[in-house]
Design a protein that fits this description.
heterodimer; A: about 300 residues; Rossmann fold; Alpha-Beta Plaits; 2 domains; 6-stranded mixed β-sheet; 10 helices; B: about 270 residues; mainly alpha; two-stranded antiparallel sheet
Chain lengths: ~300, ~270
């Protein structure tokens, strides 16, 4: 796999506060990455460092194979940080022209990108007259101007209304489907769950997990069960090594698996023991449950 | 270099406020110069013709027009501090860097713009002074016309130095108004230090040291010409004679300050977390 961004032992201190602590991870080509973490966990600081606006305290990072300077590498990157920052007195089109000049991209790219985010009709309006959703979409158009190798988005749906959020997510999905690598920082779990394949979880500047979203917790999932013969079922479950923790709430039994088991196998097993189940669902923890579990345990 | 200049010019020329200020800083001094060279008749009571005072004679005209025009540098100084202040208040400096502009390029694009506008102002001043001079001057021999054109060099370096100072103050304060306040504070400070040295030491020593201060050294490039005009009218009054010439070391001091200010602006940006 081709690495796009490699971070090694990166640390950032603001006075006494350690915003990012000894962080290492690698972003490979073609995946959609999420950086998850509560507010103040160091997501934006990490992105700030690799984007050349925040100075690191120690550690290092390299873009691509490390052969070009950070600011030249950034010309192949598209990034939006928190709020869209543009010149309020210029039109959307002129703002993109300026970005083209910085990145060394031909002006002819502008119209196509405005089309993707649906701003063609308003391209000559001043940026200061745009709604927040339009500003955010202009920011995405600007990040796409150079057909970037990687798109970095920091809280792209912050402060948007449901329609705006939906529009932005749709655009992100479309871009991801075209094979562009995406790095998405967010504290919104369902946002990450919906679009990301890989995730890095941060808390107080420390990395708690990095890897595939579905392998975040070494868990085989759990069964939700209902039956008339509740006591018999519980005694069987408690004796069985396959099951770990067992919870009972409102007549619903939740049994966590210690090793893989299919729902059909379990059903057959119960039937053989003379227990008929009126409710059987096999589930995995949602990202939110996994995330809370991760951030609580550590 | 052209790319960085284009970048900054787009930022400036699409902004109405800076466009107006740039217009004023160019048009105002030159209009006043041209108007002053025209014979003005005050309703038949008397006619005012500055040209007859001999101030538009070569070579003194170079001294007078550069001194006069440099008084208007403050308008463009506002443009310079606001081109930094706006980048901070709109947070576009952050976006510029994220888009792939290096911190060095950011400072250079501002500096190139300063040099560009100073150069345009100098060329315009050269052309206008030349025309006025050719019209009024009693002497129009080539070697007299181009004598003392070093004042144009002084004017150019004075502008570049002064605006570089503004650039540094803008980077330091991040806000236009504070940057201009700092400029004023430095002006007062230079005189306070001058006063202190005069008090503790001597006037001569104080003057020598003051000549190294940023604002004073920039002033030294074009010293006031009024005394010189008086001198030319009364050549026998030797007590008002003074050194109005432009010396090479004065140019070097201002170039030194310019380099220091541009370098410090870069250092400041490099160290800063945005």
């Amino acid at each position: 796999m081709e690495p796009i961004l490699t971070i090694n032992n990166l640390t950032k201190k603001f006075g006494y506060l350690t915003a990012v602590s000894d962080l290492s991870f690698t972003i490979n080509k073609g995946n959609v990455y999420g950086i998850l973490g509560p507010n103040g966990s160091g997501k934006s600081t990490t992105l700030g460092i690799v984007l050349n606006v925040v100075n690191k305290t120690s550690g290092d990072f390299k873009w691509f194979d490390g052969s070009i300077t950070t600011h030249d590498a950034l010309k192949k990157v598209g990034a939006i940080i928190e709020n869209p920052n543009f010149y309020p007195y210029m039109s959307g089109y002129d703002n993109l022209k300026l970005v083209c000049r910085i990145k060394g991209v031909d002006f002819s790219k502008i119209d196509g990108k405005l089309e993707i985010v649906g701003l063609t009709e308003r391209k000559n309006s001043k940026f200061s007259n745009y709604s927040l959703g339009m500003k955010q979409r202009l920011a995405i158009a600007s990040a796409l101007l150079n057909d970037p190798m990687i798109l970095i988005l920091d809280e792209p749906t912050n402060g948007l209304d449901p329609q705006g959020i939906h529009q932005i997510r749709q655009i992100i999905k479309d871009i991801a489907n075209q094979g562009t690598t995406i790095l998405l920082a967010s504290h919104l779990l369902d946002e990450v769950e919906k679009v990301c394949t890989h995730v890095v979880v941060l808390r107080k500047g420390v990395k708690l997990y990095s890897g595939r979203v579905d392998e975040m917790i070494s868990s085989y999932g759990f069964f939700e069960l209902k039956t008339d013969k509740k006591d018999e079922l519980l005694s069987i479950l408690e004796k069985d090594e396959t099951f770990g923790k067992i919870k009972v709430a409102d007549g619903l039994i939740t049994a966590f698996l210690n090793e893989p088991m299919e729902a059909a196998t379990f059903n057959k097993l119960m039937f053989e023991k003379g227990i008929t189940l009126s409710h059987l669902v096999k589930r995995k923890e949602s990202l939110e449950e996994q995330f809370l579990q991760l951030t609580d345990n550590n | 270099m052209v790319r960085l200049l284009q970048l900054e010019l787009q930022k400036l020329l699409l902004n109405r406020t800076s466009k107006v200020l740039i217009f004023i800083s160019f048009v105002l001094p030159f209009t006043v110069l041209i108007l002053s060279s025209i014979k003005i008749n005050f309703f038949g009571f008397f006619t005012l013709e500055l040209g007859e005072l001999g101030i538009y004679n070569f070579p003194i005209i170079w001294h007078i027009t550069t001194f006069f025009a440099s008084q208007f540098k403050f308008f463009f100084a506002i443009v310079v501090v606001s081109m930094i202040g706006n980048e901070y208040s709109n947070k576009t400096i952050k976006q510029n860097l994220i888009d792939g502009l290096s911190k060095k390029e950011f400072i250079l694009s501002k500096f190139y713009t300063i040099v560009f506008f100073s150069l345009v102002a100098t060329i315009l001043l050269f052309l206008i002074s030349l025309f006025i001079g050719l019209y009024y001057s009693s002497y129009t021999e080539i070697n007299i016309i181009f004598r003392e054109t070093e004042y144009l060099l002084g004017y150019f370096l004075k502008l570049v130095g002064f605006f570089s100072f503004c650039l540094f103050l803008g980077m330091l304060a991040k806000r236009s108004a504070f940057a201009l306040a700092f400029l004023f504070v430095d002006y007062i400070l230079e005189w306070i230090i001058f006063g202190l040295i005069t008090w503790k030491g001597s006037y001569e020593l104080a003057e020598k040291i003051q000549n190294f201060f940023p604002l004073k050294s920039m002033y030294n490039l074009i010293k006031q010409p009024v005394q010189r005009i008086v001198m030319s009218k009364f050549p026998d009054k030797t007590e008002i004679a003074y050194d109005y010439a432009l010396h090479w070391y004065e140019l070097v001091i201002v170039m030194g300050w310019t380099a220091i200010f541009v370098f410090l602006s870069y250092r400041l940006l490099k160290k800063r977390d945005l």
